[in-house]
Amino acid sequence: MDFLYDVLIKPFVEMGGDPAFFFQVLWEGFVAGILYALIALGFVLIFKASGIFNFAQGIMVVFAALGLVGFYEVLGSAGIESGTVKAVISLVLTLTMMYALAFGVERLVLRPLVGQEDIILFMSTIGITFMLIGGGQWIFGGEPKSMITEDLGLPTGDTVVDAFGGIIIFQHLDVAATIIAGLLIAGLALFFSKTKTGRALRAVADDHQAAVSVGIGLNQIWVVVWFAAGIVALVTGVMWGAKSDVSFALQIVALKALPVLVLGGFTSIPGAIVGGLIIGIGEKVFELYWGGLMGGGVESWFAFIIALIFLLFRPQGIFGDKIIERV
Amino acid sequence: MAPGMDGQSMEATETDGYVTADGRQIGGVMMDIRNIVLRFGGVTAIQDVTFDIRKGEVRAIIGPNGAGKSSMLNVINGFYHPQEGEIWFKGKLRPSMKPYEVAEQGIARTFQNIALFKGMSTLDNIMTGRQLKMKKNFFWQMLRYGPAIQEEVEHRQKVEEIIDFLEIQAIRKTPVGSLPYGMQKRVELARALAMEPELLLLDEPMAGMNVEEKEDMSRFIIDVNEQYGTTICLIEHDMGVVMDLADRVVVLDYGKQLADGLPGDVQKDQAVIDAYLGV
User: Fold this and answer.
1) Contact assignment for B79 to A209 by CB distance below 8 Å
2) Distance between CA atoms of residues B50 and B65, nearest Å
3) pLDDT at residue B16, rounded to an integer
4) I need a labelling partner for A125 at 20 to 30 A (CA). Which of A19, A309, B11, B183 fits?
5) Coil, helix or strand for B25?
């Protein structure tokens, strides 16, 4: 009986007993969820437009963040004083680098593999991952670096709000991350649903032959989509980097995108957001109120259990494309 | 009536059209295909094939299985690049082109095994046909800026016209993957028409259809040709259908050209009869 009480009743009593703390947990979970959603978004973009599961998305996040900090350091040693100037120039250089990456991937990997099985393209993205890990360490070094948060104009303070009979702390960085992520996601959603390029991207994902027969050039489309994923990677890298350090360990976080994708559906932008939030909030709440029963540390596997349950009952995810099969 | 072979200048053939049995005036040469040879390794899929397509006509390519008909269409469309031979389009020698560049020239096509965007609605599928004609950049489209909206509306109108024309109003919003086969064929035709092509290539538009669906499709092909003046080049197995639809027929067998001419003449050709009866 004690056990049932601990599982079914006690957590809710605790939530009700300190609502301010409960709200704080929800907010932390929300922010983590937004960042998961951003990583998942990178995967969704490429999957939607080419049907490839891009294993390299996680390392692209690290690569972009390392690039940004790396360029900043180089500019510093080149004698530029102003932090803002350095930040802006390195931002432009990083975007150029991500474009070059998109271009290179299209030219060297995707173009020669046109029309191959999805699994072969997937394998090639694993190859890209190792290239980027090696290349990244060679160019930028392997040691962790700190993100140039202030020079990028991101706020660092916090606001304490009295509410629910207690206090809730809002980190300004978290608020900024939420707003930026919101704008990025809204922009991408509009891009996919309302523009001819977006329509072309969806068309390419469905059928290469048909797409070229109506005049859609595959090559440009792939560069566009990999560059878009690169931009998302950069934003994600800046946000995660500002919360922890910029290091290769970040790509482990990218693994969390997998359950998010299973939950939300591989082809859905809203799915990535909702999935991210469910995982983010779910794991924080579960950790703090139920984690103690299992000796803590549930945060690391909670997401995968949820994903497993989804795979059993709704394999296409909440918003995934309906699986159409004519027999 | 034979097209300008060696030496004969394009200008000479541009002018001489002909009048069909049902009284339609056919114009000059739109596409001139000369001595095409296509090999895959040791296999020769097309061997020295020469014919022309004239403005406004319905041209058919027929032949038994494996005759090289689809290969021929893929050469015109830019999926395959022949090892030898020339393609002249509207009086100009065409360099080796990618399929999307061919599409930009105003050549649309459908596929033997239906190539639609299965996850997208009928409407979205047809809208992709307008891709090349939409000029506003994505930035304005995203912001729903006036002129970009207006452009979208104009193209949508054109698409609705085609939807009415092919009588597919009821399936406008349906994902095409869930449509019956005959309907999918019709959506594919609609997408090609949305490109407002000068030359429309149809790869077995009636394959796998029942009699009723075949009659519908034949009617649409005739209507497209008459109302929009679109030049059509089609591949077909069904001899009966070809004889009714086509103005001129070229017959291939094992990649070689057996005959080229009016349906009635081709039908009487001994080589063609042998090929079809397997002699």
Assistant:
1) yes
2) 20
3) 67
4) A309
5) strand
B37, pLDDT greater than 90: yes
Q: Is the pTM of this model over 0.90?
A: no
CA distance A284 to B241: 68
Q: Do A202 and B177 touch (CB under 8 A)?
A: no
Which chain A residues have a beta carbon less than 8 Å from that of B123? none
- Which run of H or E residues covers position B18? strand B18-19
Please write down the long-range contacts of B255-262, taking CB distance under 8 Å and 24 or more positions apart.
B255/B38, B255/B44, B255/B45, B255/B46, B255/B47, B255/B49, B255/B67, B255/B68, B255/B71, B256/B47, B256/B48, B256/B49, B257/B48, B257/B49, B257/B50, B257/B51, B258/B63, B260/B51, B262/B21
The helix/strand/coil state of B252 is: strand
Q: Using the 8-state DSSP alphabet, how is residue B48 labeled?
A: E
Residue appearing with tokens 């360990």: A249
pLDDT at B2 over 70: no
> By the 8 A CB rule, do B242 and B62 touch?
yes
Mean pLDDT in residue range B218-238: 90
Find the DSSP H helices in B121-269. 122-128, 138-142, 146-165, 181-194, 211-227, 239-245, 263-268
| B159 vs B147: CA distance, rounded Å | 18
For A121-137, what is the mean pLDDT? 90
Tell whether A327 is within 8 A of chain B (Cβ). no
Within 194-213 of A, beta carbons closer than 8 Å to B belong to 194-200, 202-203, 205-207, 209-213
Helix (H), strand (E) at residue B247: none
Residue B3, pLDDT above cutoff 50: no
Q: To which H or E segment does residue B40 belong?
A: strand B29-40
Residues of A in contact with B144 (CB under 8 A): 194
Residue A53: strand, helix, or coil: coil
* pLDDT at residue B6, as a whole number: 42
Q: Does A115 touch chain B (CB under 8 A)?
A: no
pLDDT at B191 over 60: yes
A243 versus A233: the higher-pLDDT residue is A233
Q: Cα separation of A296 and A284, whole Å?
A: 11
pLDDT of residue A321: 65
Mean pLDDT of chain A: 85
What CA–CA distance (Å, rounded) separates B202 from B276? 22
